Amino acid sequence: MDYRRFDDTIIARIDRGEDIVDMLKEISVKEDIKLASVSALGAIGRLETGLFDTAEKKYYNTCEREGDFEITSLTGTVNTMNGEYYGHLHLSAADREGNVYGGHLNSAIVSGTCEMVIRIINGCVDRKFSDEIGLNLYEFQD
Question: How many other CB atoms sit within 10 Å of the CB of residue 141?
Answer without folding.
Answer: 7
